[in-house]
């Protein structure tokens, strides 16, 4: 053990000037770097304890390096809690538990100030007008809830600019996910009823909604409005299924369940979010902590930083009693404006919930320890490059392949936290577009894919990569806007000026300049892998379609119609379907096609129909 930097005389002088008030202390080394940040109800007693009691090895190492101690007095313990979290975040001291959780958690936003309120995915400050529901543990939890709500109570989810400029109902109305208030197909009063029910559902008052819908169903049946009664019946059934799946406790209420698992110097804290008695989902966190940190120390550090900028529920169920439990309860109560209980000795049903959380924490920890470090590194680099709040859990990439506009095929490949997810790959045969129109091909593929996502058949991705620049990106923006898909990060992957690998440009919506990362960037390596996989899958699909068409194409049996003329014909008429609708005179207008050959082609393609 090295000799302490502070002499006894200097230490006594430092301790003499520390007051007995609440506040925050910072331990500094000889270079002025922050070693540790702590909070205390009584600063003098807490700081003095580091020099007057038996310490574990970690604290002995830290104390031996202390050259100075700086303090900040606060008025209350709650202020000390917030200041400590801010200082830990800014200085990242090596002896503190460090939580990489800079994200703002997603909410569901309802614009109650509008005549026809909008439901939307929201992340950020909650100071604006309207209602905010949450927080939710992830973007996918918000998207799932919004999809469920849209099926039950078709409140609009489109942006205001889209809503104000409609002259006819959009696709959402056609698939019964919206009542088209934009063109006056529902009254403000009827719309307000759906809004009120949505609020009750999000507030956890599902029983009240079901009871109200049941009364309306009986009224409709008595009035012989059987179609209306059937709609209400389906809404009640859907709500019942959701309630069965999500309900946690008969007593309702808000609480978080937190469990900590530790192995080999790696720590995992699993958090379950319970609001109004419903499980909104769970999330794993992997805080960085000194090697000898105990679960109690990790839990204390996690609670301090995690709830520094988030709403605190009235009760926290924890697997390990955190250090300074009473201090945390007092500080949290001050911040929340009501009592906050941190409970760890549990019995009965609550003990089972905690056991469930502990099991999830251990599973997540084992998965983390056994995961491929290289892939995680690339995911983390991608998160940083795109400025994401968290590592993406699901990524999709689309590509288009054709030969001179003929037999276009679009591909969709899927990557998740573990890598390729080949079982979710899909191909789309593209028809009915102008040959070579990659924008229209991309729009058709995205429309078909994301309509399935809208119907809940496929999960919504966190990132959607498009192989192409601004044009393809704009096509994707239009489709997602039309379908009302929210919370998906769109990225166009365009080839660089010389079309060389490693010089790709990344385009995002509403950005004037592309992102250009170094060729050796782990994030770009991952993007290239995903893009190349989409390209390979599209080319393979196109070749299969082309080979099949060549084996059966009627044009190949016509003397004088070679590959070049076939391509010209298909390009001129948008494919065989358009060619069949054309007259012999129309066909003769194509360059290189004589009147006699046009007549042959016309007869051949129509004989192929059996006419």
TrEMBL record:
Annotated GIY-YIG domain residues: 20-97
Domain annotation UvrC family homology region profile: ranges: 257-480
Quaternary structure (record): Interacts with UvrB in an incision complex.
Principal localisation: cytoplasm
Matching PANTHER family: UVRABC SYSTEM PROTEIN C, UVRC/OXIDOREDUCTASE
HAMAP family, sorted: UvrC (MF_00203)
Name this protein carries in UniProt: UvrABC system protein C
Function as written in the Swiss-Prot or TrEMBL entry: The UvrABC repair system catalyzes the recognition and processing of DNA lesions. UvrC both incises the 5' and 3' sides of the lesion. The N-terminal half is responsible for the 3' incision and the C-terminal half is responsible for the 5' incision.
Subcellular location: Cytoplasm
Similarity comment: Belongs to the UvrC family.
Family matches, as Pfam families: GIY-YIG, HHH_5, UVR, UvrC_RNaseH, UvrC_RNaseH_dom
Keywords per UniProt: Cytoplasm, DNA damage, DNA excision, DNA repair, Excision nuclease, SOS response
């Amino acid at each position: 053990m090295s000799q302490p930097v502070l002499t006894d005389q200097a230490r006594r002088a430092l301790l003499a000037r520390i007051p007995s008030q609440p506040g925050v202390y910072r331990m500094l080394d000889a270079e002025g770097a922050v070693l540790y940040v702590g909070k205390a109800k009584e600063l003098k007693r807490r700081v003095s304890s580091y020099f007057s009691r038996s310490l574990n090895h970690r604290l002995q190492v830290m104390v031996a390096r202390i050259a100075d101690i700086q303090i900040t007095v606060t008025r209350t313990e709650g202020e000390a809690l917030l200041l400590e979290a801010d200082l830990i975040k800014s200085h990242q001291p090596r002896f503190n538990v460090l939580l990489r959780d800079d994200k703002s958690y997603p909410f569901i936003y309802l614009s109650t100030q509008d005549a026809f309120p909008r439901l939307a995915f929201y992340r950020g400050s909650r100071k604006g007008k309207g209602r905010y529901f949450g927080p939710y543990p992830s973007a996918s939890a918000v998207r799932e809830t919004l999809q469920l709500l849209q099926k039950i109570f078709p409140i609009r989810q489109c942006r205001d600019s889209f809503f104000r400029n409609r002259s006819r109902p959009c696709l959402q109305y056609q698939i019964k996910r919206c009542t088209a208030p934009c063109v006056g197909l529902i009254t403000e009063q009827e719309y307000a009823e759906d809004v009120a029910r949505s609020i009750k559902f999000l507030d956890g008052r599902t029983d009240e909604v079901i009871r109200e819908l049941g009364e309306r169903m009986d009224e409709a049946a008595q009035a012989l409005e059987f179609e209306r009664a059937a709609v209400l019946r389906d809404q009640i059934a859907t709500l019942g299924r959701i309630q069965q799946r999500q309900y946690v406790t008969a007593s309702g209420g808000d609480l978080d369940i937190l469990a900590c698992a530790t192995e080999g110097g790696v720590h995992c804290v699993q958090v379950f979010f319970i609001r109004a008695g419903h499980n909104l989902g769970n999330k794993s966190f992997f805080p960085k902590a000194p090697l000898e940190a105990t679960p109690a120390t990790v839990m204390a550090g996690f609670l301090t930083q995690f709830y520094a900028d988030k709403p605190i529920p009235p009760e926290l169920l924890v697997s390990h009693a955190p250090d300074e439990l009473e201090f945390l309860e007092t500080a949290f109560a001050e911040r929340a404006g009501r009592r906050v209980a941190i409970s760890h000795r549990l019995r009965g049903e609550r003990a089972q919930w905690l056991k469930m959380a502990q099991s999830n924490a251990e599973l997540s920890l084992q998965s983390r320890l056994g995961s491929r470090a290289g892939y995680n590194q690339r995911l983390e680099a991608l998160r940083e490059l795109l400025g994401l709040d968290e590592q993406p859990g699901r990524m999709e990439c689309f590509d288009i392949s054709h030969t001179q506009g003929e037999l276009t095929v679009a591909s969709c490949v899927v990557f998740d936290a573990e890598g390729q997810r080949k079982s979710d790959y899909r191909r789309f045969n593209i028809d009915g577009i102008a040959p070579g129109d990659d924008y229209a091909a991309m729009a058709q593929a995205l429309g078909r894919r994301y309509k399935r996502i809208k119907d809940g058949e496929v999960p919504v991705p966190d990132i959607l990569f498009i192989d192409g620049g601004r044009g393809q990106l704009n096509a994707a923006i239009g489709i997602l806007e039309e379908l009302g898909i929210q919370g998906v990060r769109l990225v166009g992957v365009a080839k660089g000026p010389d079309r060389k690998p490693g010089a790709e440009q990344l385009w995002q919506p509403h950005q004037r300049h592309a992102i250009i990362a170094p060729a050796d960037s782990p994030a770009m390596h991952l993007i290239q892998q995903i893009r190349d996989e989409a390209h390979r899958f599209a080319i393979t699909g196109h070749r299969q379609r082309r080979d099949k068409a060549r084996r059966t194409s009627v044009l190949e049996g016509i003397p004088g119609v070679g590959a070049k003329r076939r391509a010209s014909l298909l390009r001129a008429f948008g494919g065989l379907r358009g060619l069949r609708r054309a007259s012999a005179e129309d066909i003769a207008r194509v360059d290189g096609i004589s009147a006699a050959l046009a007549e042959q082609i016309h007869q051949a393609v129509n004989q192929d129909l059996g006419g």
